[in-house]
Amino acid sequence: MNHPDNLRYTDTHEWVRVEQDGTVTVGITDHAQDALGDVVFLQLPDVGRTVARTEAMAVIESVKSASDIHAPVAGTVTAVNQAVADAPEQVNQDPYAAWMFVIKPDSASELDALLSADAYSATLG
Amino acid sequence: MDTPNTAALRRTPLHPLHLAAGAKMVTFAGWDMPIQYVPGILQEHLHTRTHAGLFDVSHMGQIEVSGPGACAWLESLTTADLVALPDGRQTYALLTNDAGGIIDDLMIQKVGPVFHVVCNAARLAQVQAQFAAHPPGADCSVTLHEDRALLALQGPQAEAVLQPLADVAGLRFLDVREYPDAVAGGLRLSRSGYTGEDGFEISLPAAAAPAFAARLLEHPQVRWIGLGARDTLRLEAGMCLYGNDIDDGTTPVSASIGWAVAPARRHGGPRAGGFPGADIILAEFAAPPAKVRVALLPDGRAPQRAGARIVDAEGRELGVITSGNHSPTLGRPIAMASIARAAKDAGTPLFIDSRGQKVAAALTAFPFVPNRYRR
């Protein structure tokens, strides 16, 4: 599995990229897309929605199953990737290009709780 | 992720081939079975619709019923017309309980004086219990063949793939033939399947199965197909999955499979009734039951899955989805639901309670994707 070192991770299989402006871009990991199988549907949150850390804020469905996508940090949704909702197979093809939403964190300190690539890989056993 | 105790799971004779093909294995009815291979469910599904897919269904129960009393005993437990079933033909049949529910759905073949029955792996224990509760007389013997494998080869290229190994070109849908020389111990196949495509179900000795499967897989058109695509294929074909769409509390007419009760076994037929629950089941042809299985096309793109409630515009409960998923062929969600017959008859607008949102669903006819049997 490919879990790039420049990203942070959650134990619920989201990847997080911390941008220069302090916002975070979120998608699901290579491990997650592989476990889900063929993704056929993605329900994204509304821009402007406020979310609590670990809140279920989006839904991803494969032929096999449905899963929630969780907020890696508390904050406000500032952008969503409608292109990937329109062509959800992109999640399987390149999970790190298929970002799903951007959150402006309430507190930068929550970023410290995110996992490194090595720590995330270790959770997969 | 759960790590089942795989040592306790049963394995088919093809298990090493699945692992070698990169299958993701899951526990199904006590068996370690392939849910998908490297291409994934979508590609496997579409491959079966366009080429030929090979399924290992060796977990299913293969039961031989023989002897002079075989026909009468099987008719005493099922809805089939086995008296009129010609030699070399197969029929779908229901094993019923005293309440008119379905213990299992079966395929029954007649080959000479012998009946070959295939039942669901997850229902084998219940099938055997029903047999034990209604034991045959001395003129009939029942044998479970755990020493046999079962393969299904499905898709428009199935005949061309199989023809060099067994002369199947003359067979029509539901024909059955034995090929004593095709493999050591011989094989028996039927032109049938669980995908809606033309294809074959092939019973053969376990010892011969890996080499036979490998020969089929040598053909460039053939790929392994897992249980995941098997489910989406049968859903598109409008076929019931035991445990989802039918169970021991579902009657045939309420499941919209009244056709599986042979005319000879209905009122006015030469051997009306005579199977468990017949009074209840046959009465439903005259006075339809309150529920009916229907085909639905949910709005939007989200798969609507088993367990989701069906409601009317005011939110009153009308039924439940029994099977639902994304249709790879149609590129949209499809579903089967058990709903109030009155709502179907009245054309009541239907909605799916989907995570608190109401999603409209249009009634359509089975199958979702036209079948392509060689009748």
UniProtKB/TrEMBL annotation, chain A:
GO terms classed as biological process: glycine decarboxylation via glycine cleavage system; protein lipoylation
A Pfam short name: GCV_H
Recorded GO CC terms: cytosol; glycine cleavage complex
The keyword Signal appears for this protein: no
Assembly and binders: The glycine cleavage system is composed of four proteins: P, T, L and H.
Function: The glycine cleavage system catalyzes the degradation of glycine. The H protein shuttles the methylamine group of glycine from the P protein to the T protein.
Alphabetical list of PANTHER family matching this protein: GLYCINE CLEAVAGE SYSTEM H PROTEIN, GLYCINE CLEAVAGE SYSTEM H PROTEIN-RELATED
Name of the featured protein: Glycine cleavage system H protein
Species whose genome carries this gene: Methyloversatilis universalis (strain ATCC BAA-1314 / DSM 25237 / JCM 13912 / CCUG 52030 / FAM5)
Gene name, Swiss-Prot/TrEMBL: gcvH
UniProtKB/TrEMBL annotation, chain B:
Catalytic activity: N(6)-[(R)-S(8)-aminomethyldihydrolipoyl]-L-lysyl-[protein] + (6S)-5,6,7,8-tetrahydrofolate = N(6)-[(R)-dihydrolipoyl]-L-lysyl-[protein] + (6R)-5,10-methylene-5,6,7,8-tetrahydrofolate + NH4(+)
Residues the entry annotates as binding substrate: E201
Entries under Gene3D superfamilies matching the protein: Aminomethyltransferase beta-barrel domains, Aminomethyltransferase fragment, Probable tRNA modification gtpase trme, domain 1
GO cellular component, one term: glycine cleavage complex
InterPro entries assigned: GcvT, GcvT/YgfZ/DmdA, GcvT/YgfZ_C, GcvT_C, GCVT_N, TrmE/GcvT-like
Domain GCVT N-terminal: 14-262
Recorded GO MF terms: aminomethyltransferase activity; transaminase activity
Protein name listed in UniProt: aminomethyltransferase
Family: Belongs to the GcvT family.
Pfam family, one: GCV_T
First-tier enzyme category under EC: transferase
GO biological process: glycine catabolic process
E.C. number: 2.1.2.10
Keywords from the named record: Aminotransferase, Transferase
Aminomethyltransferase C-terminal domain segment(s): 292-369
